[in-house]
């Protein structure tokens, strides 16, 4: 049977669905060899997701910088000169780009290569660079109708706020924003306008700012470097200069700005259904943390990560305050423990001091009927293997929760 009649036997919508489902597996390549009619759509799937460099999870070594720069230049040149139709610059929709870690301000010429990349149809960009050349990044962004953006960089608070304001002004379709930022001190260098003190009056004002549905802000804060309680506040309190957060469904924050949670959650909490707090650690707790949850009137999924066995009574007290507010509507609670600091951890201590406390806490809500109509349906526990416990051991310490017919217990080890 020839390829042409073979293709004609498939309705177009069935053929397209087959290609879309196999995505970039070897089957797609086989399909294009069987029937050339399938090639254009298969190519769109093969190159829809592009990562540079291919092993982006590994940071290039310092001696690889020149080689990395050469490959980036060749990539831009090859994409520009390609005669394929549609061009690769429009086929790629999801781009992951990792610049080497050891790029400092004196290497800004390296960063400017980013603006020369010919991508024009990106839907999602995951960009990582130790030193952020914002002008070049904005030049790349303005050519693409982004819906999702993830940024990883060392950047000052003023620089970040100014950059986010510019991104909001130029990306009306953006729905998801993910920030992994290590703030550094603002530089007094008068030639660097990005690091000058942030002034909202000098930033673009939008009557219809982009409406975010998902926001993740994960920062590494050093109190001597930046005022950890205030640096994020303008982003949440001035939506006309940044993003509309009134429809935010998924929110991820780090538990290091408890004094500002009433402000943050008041601004974006009413629509949030899924909330994640990273580094849920006793040194970050504050009196405003638990009461802030009163603004999360639609919360159904709560995830707490980085939980430590140290001073776990403090953790249970805060968790009790949080659950007292949200338990009536919460459907899923996920607790992720951090790897213990001690080289050797005793499972009995962890079981008695932590797992039993969780079991007693949840049992208290169940027995007193505070769960209302049993809205809490699932408890997920993620526990490091360093605690030397298997799933059966863990369930033993959670006997009451495990025996509850209305609450599903999920245990995973990592």
From TrEMBL:
<dbReference type="InterPro" id="IPR032675">
    <property type="entry name" value="LRR_dom_sf"/>
</dbReference>
<protein>
    <recommendedName>
        <fullName>F-box domain-containing protein</fullName>
    </recommendedName>
</protein>
């Amino acid at each position: 049977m020839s390829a042409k009649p073979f293709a004609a036997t498939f309705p177009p919508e069935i053929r397209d669905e087959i290609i879309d489902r196999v995505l970039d597996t070897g089957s797609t390549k086989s399909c294009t060899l069987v029937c050339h009619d399938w090639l254009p759509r298969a190519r769109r799937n093969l190159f829809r997701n592009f990562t540079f460099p291919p092993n982006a999870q590994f940071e290039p070594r310092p001696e690889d910088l020149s080689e990395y720069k050469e490959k980036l230049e060749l990539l831009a040149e090859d994409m520009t000169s390609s005669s394929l139709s549609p061009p690769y610059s429009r086929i790629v929709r999801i781009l992951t780009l990792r610049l080497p870690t050891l790029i400092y301000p004196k290497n800004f010429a390296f960063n400017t290569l980013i603006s020369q990349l010919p991508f024009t149809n990106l839907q999602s960009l995951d960009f990582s660079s130790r030193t952020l050349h914002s002008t070049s990044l904005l030049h790349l962004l303005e050519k693409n109708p982004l819906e999702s953006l993830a940024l990883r960089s060392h950047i000052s608070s003023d620089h970040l706020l100014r950059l986010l304001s510019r991104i909001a002004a130029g990306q009306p379709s953006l729905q998801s924003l993910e920030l992994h930022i290590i703030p550094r001190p603002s530089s007094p260098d008068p030639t660097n306008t990005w690091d000058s003190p942030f002034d909202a009056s000098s930033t673009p004002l939008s009557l219809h700012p982009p409406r975010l549905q998902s926001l993740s802000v994960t920062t590494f804060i050093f109190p001597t470097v930046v005022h950890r309680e205030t640096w994020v506040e303008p982003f949440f309190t001035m939506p006309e200069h940044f993003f509309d957060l009134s429809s935010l469904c998924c929110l991820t924050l780090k538990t290091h700005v408890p004094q500002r949670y009433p402000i943050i959650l008041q601004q974006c909490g009413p629509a949030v259904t899924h909330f994640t707090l990273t580094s849920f650690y006793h040194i970050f707790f504050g009196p405003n943390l638990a009461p802030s949850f009163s603004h999360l009137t639609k919360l159904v999924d709560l995830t707490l990560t980085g939980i430590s066995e140290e001073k776990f009574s403090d953790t249970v007290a805060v968790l009790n305050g949080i659950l007292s507010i949200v338990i009536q509507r919460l459907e899923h609670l996920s607790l992720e423990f951090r790897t213990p600091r001690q080289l050797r951890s005793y499972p009995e201590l962890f079981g008695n001091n932590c797992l039993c406390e969780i079991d007693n806490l949840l049992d208290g809500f169940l027995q007193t009927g505070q769960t209302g109509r049993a809205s809490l349906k699932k408890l997920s526990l993620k526990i490091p293997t360093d605690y030397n416990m298997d799933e059966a051991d863990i369930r033993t310490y959670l006997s009451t929760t495990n025996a509850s017919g209305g609450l599903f217990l999920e245990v995973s080890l990592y």
